Amino acid sequence: MKFGAKTKLGLYWGKETIYFVAVKSGQAETIIPISSQEALQSQKDKTLPEKILFGSFLLSKLGNFRAQSKSIGLSLPANDLMVRSFTIPMMKAEEAKNVVEFEAIKYIPLKLSELAYTFHTIPLTDEQQKGLRVLFVAIKMNVLQRYTGILEHAEFAIERIEPSFVSLVRALNKKGLINKNQPTAVIEFEKGKSKILILDEDVVQHVREIPAPDEESDFTSTNNNLLKDIRVSLDFYKRQNPKSEIKNILVVSQMSLNELTAGIGREFGFSTQYICTSQLLNIKEAVELGFIYAYGLTLADQEISTKNFELSGTPARKQQQPNYVLTALVLLGCVCVAMLSVYSSNQMVVGHWDHLAQLEKSQRPFEKSSIEEIEKKRMEKLGEFYAYQDVRLKSQINDDLTRIPNLLPQGTWLTSWDFTYYDKSYEQDKINRVNSRLQMNFEGYTYAKNPNAQFQIINNWLAQLKIDEHFSRQFDTIELGSVQQENLGEYPVTKFKISCR
Fold first, then answer.
1. Would you give the end-to-end CA distance of the chain in angstroms?
2. How many helices (H) and strands (E) are present in the chain, helices listed first?
3. Buried b (16+ CB within 10 A) or exposed e, 467-478
4. What is the DSSP string of 354-404?
5. What does the pLDDT read at residue 320?
6. DSSP string of 421-485, one letter each residue
7. Alpha-carbon distance 182 to 187, whole Å?
């Protein structure tokens, strides 16, 4: 789908403000903030449906732009979206859709028929097993229809709908600020709310909201809570993607955060860069991030940015295409390494002779022993050393018994809780080692006056356990085993099982 040939219109629907941008030749020519409260107060007849009230108000504000383009793009706020990541076995693209839809219902307490959704799959290899990592993005259909109904009543044709975090990455890519072949963390800071995104291989792979101060003066490099929340997100992503190494952090904000950006670089040892919103729009004054979302959306047809997460139509089956540029660079790098190896070898010949003489002197006590005997003794000692290291000397169960009750949501209780240990075998230096790992399973119920809210309570708690620093460090996986509604007497409750392993 394409926007109008001359002027492109983008809109981001914020909580209190609607941000509108008119773009021509990649340059934002007009930006208009529209107050949602003003829209409601301007209408005399309050009995009319919301889409008519809002639609008429938007038409009065933006009607002049319809002469330039009748189509508009919509960037969705992150708090309206459900973003999930999970893995499935490797399979053909035509088979993935059904499997993804089956797996998604385990992570989202709603029927897929109630959602508009899309997904992207990325090949991965985990413990020698090939699979697909699924990035699933969804929004409630009734929420999406509220936005589209208002815009349609304002006589705009909706050409594109996408998450705001995708729109932001488009704007960053337009400025050449992101290396598509290097994992990058993007932190967007606003008063009271902030988000961290992680982009790898041209795909937004991680999105998480982090608490932010209400005052600009508290955005400092000495704000330990802020740095801690950033670390939790980076550590969580690293555990999920052990082969992906983040080396670059971009800080985007309307506020001047050079000091905080430098502090983040010192804290994590990464390359950091502060980007003001005015830089992305090529204007003098800094503006709210909502305008950046609306602007980035209009760049969708320039093929300069992140993979699409289109939500205006039927979910596409997306498969990552081979990165030929990266392959060429790797090949070139291998050639360079080979040439450097030859050069380095010639330079170190003299040093190797001296080192050889020292080794001959140190090996004299073993000069009558065969190579096989020496190797056997070495492996025996190494095996004894590893055996001592693998002995479990302490347990963290006491911490779990304290932390779990404190994290239980209101109206939630446990009916069973068991702990077991299992041996996880692995090989190191051709020696079989055993790591004793804790497994924790518990069952319980949750109650809320609205039965539909009970699933959300459980999923929110599961998400909290996954990002908790203690549990995310202790367990590789924290999964929801089953969820089902039951009645305890006259009260509808939801029973759940959670496994931590």
1. 45
2. 15, 17
3. ebeebbebbeeb
4. HHHHHHHHHTGGGTTS-HHHHHHHHHHHHHHHHHHHTS-----HHHHHHHH
5. 41
6. EEEEEEEETTEEEEEEEEEEEEEEEE--SSHHHHHHHHHHHHHHHHH-HHHHHH-S-EEEEEEEE
7. 16
pLDDT of 75 reads 93
Sheet holding 27-35, edge to edge: 27-35, 17-24, 7-13, 71-76, 157-163
For residue 307, count other CB atoms closer than 10 A to its CB. 19
Averages of pLDDT over each 10 residues, the chain, 501 residues: 66 90 89 83 67 83 82 91 87 83 86 90 75 89 91 88 92 88 91 89 85 88 87 87 87 93 91 93 91 91 68 50 52 59 53 62 64 77 75 71 84 90 80 83 92 87 84 86 88 92 87
Q: What are the angstrom distances between the C-alpha of 62 and each of 33, 43, 48, 146?
A: 11, 16, 21, 19
Q: Is 9 exposed, middle or buried (0-12, 13-18, 19+ CB in 10 A)?
A: buried
- The CA distance from 401 to 416, in Å, is 13
Residue (of 431, 432, 442) closest to 501 by Cα position:
442
Question: What phi, psi does 122 have (nearest 5°)?
Answer: -130, 125
What 3-state DSSP class applies to 171?
helix
Q: Which residues pair with 210 in a beta bridge?
A: 194
Judge whether 197 and 204 are in contact, CB under 8 Å. Answer: yes
**Using CB atoms within 10 A of its CB, is residue 441 exposed (0-12), middle (13-18) or buried (19+)?**
middle
Q: How far, in Å, CA of 302 to CA of 321, rounded?
A: 18
Among left, alpha and beta (phi > 0; psi -120 to 50; other), residue 430 is left
